[in-house]
Amino acid sequence: MTQTETAKTAEAASEPSRCIICGGGTFRPAGVSSGYRIFRCMGCGFHFVHPLPSLEEIAAIYEKYSSNVLYSAKAERKVLRAMKQIKRYLKPKPGARFIDFGCNIGTGVEAAHRLGLEAYGVDIDEESVGIARNEYPAGHYHAGAVESLPEDWKDFDFAFMIEVIEHLPDPHAYFEAMRARLKPGALLYLTTPDAGHWRVPKDFPTWQEVFPPQHIHYFTRTAMQHFLPAHGFEIVRFVWSPKTRLKVLARKL
User: Fold this and answer.
1) Mean of the pLDDT values across residues 153-164?
2) Residue 193: is its pLDDT beyond 90?
3) 179 burial type by CB count under 10 A (0-12 exposed, 13-18 middle, 19+ buried)
4) Half-sphere exposure of residue 59, counting CA atoms within 13 Å on the CB side?
5) How far is CA 226 from CA 101, 206, 235, in A?
6) The whole model's pTM is what?
7) Alpha carbon distance 77, 207 (integer Å)
């Protein structure tokens, strides 16, 4: 066994030392999925893969990711749903600036455009952004990390982050970069699988949302109450959902 292989084996056998959300140090094993160990923080309920998959592992998975076909097949429904969400939660005025972090094929951006907003979207996946530009050319798009956004992409009034945070290897770094692009008082509508929902099975790895290395972080309301204020957001409210979804409306301070 090489030195690198030995180091990886030791890391895989290690126990987590500190919760990245609440700073707690007490954990319980929550199971194993696809060879990835999952732990639960006993302080805030945050579930997470440990050790984290390497960036190479994550990249390899997304090279084979086929969700664009599924998204495209129901794109118009997603546009209409996003329009309802924007009107219900953000109550925007025409001409305001909107950005969708993790925009995929651009349905959220298109929804904002149809409501009269100046609409932008960013996604790490070039293929998704290519589809967005082709299908919804009225929007503005950027393919790449949030840290690489053009300098003039700033002062946004509203932001979407739909099913993104569970994928992020470093949610803290992402939120710091994202927050810098929003105006003080800007509203953020965020959704992610809810690890604390009453419908999540006791055998955590059997939950349909558990499929590492795509999903590596699983929030609860308590975890989100730690995370968002730590990045300068106040929680306006949690939106009830019968499904295992954590939906939150927050405001940048």
Assistant:
1) 97
2) yes
3) middle
4) 4
5) 21, 26, 10
6) 0.91
7) 25
The structure tokens listed for 176 are: 């710091």
Letter for the amino acid at 64? K
Q: Are 42 and 24 in contact (CB under 8 A)?
A: yes
* CA-angle at 50, arms to 46 and 52, nearest 5°: 105
Beta bridge mates, 191: 162, 247
Residue 179 CA to its chain's centroid (Å) = 14
CB 22 within 8 A of CB 172: no
The residues, ordered by sequence, that sit 6+ positions from 251 with a Cβ below 8 Å of its Cβ are 185, 186, 187, 188, 233, 234, 236
Q: Confirm if 105 and 135 have CB atoms less than 8 A apart.
A: yes
* 8 A C-beta contact, residue 47 and residue 58: no
Query: Residue 113, SS3?
Result: helix
For residue 207, the SS3 value is coil
pLDDT recorded at residue 132:
95
CA distance 69 to 18: 39
pLDDT at 219: 98
User: Whose structure tokens read 């951006």?
Assistant: 109
Report the 10 Å Cβ neighbour count for 129: 21
- Which residue type does 157 have? D
| Burial letters 5-28, b for 16+ CB under 10 A, else e | eeeeeeeeeeebeebbbbebeebe
User: For tokens 């579930």, what's the residue?
Assistant: 47
Interatomic CA distance for residues 49 and 252, integer angstroms: 29
Q: β-strand 156-162 against 182-193: which pairing, if any?
A: parallel
Tokens of 224: 């989100």
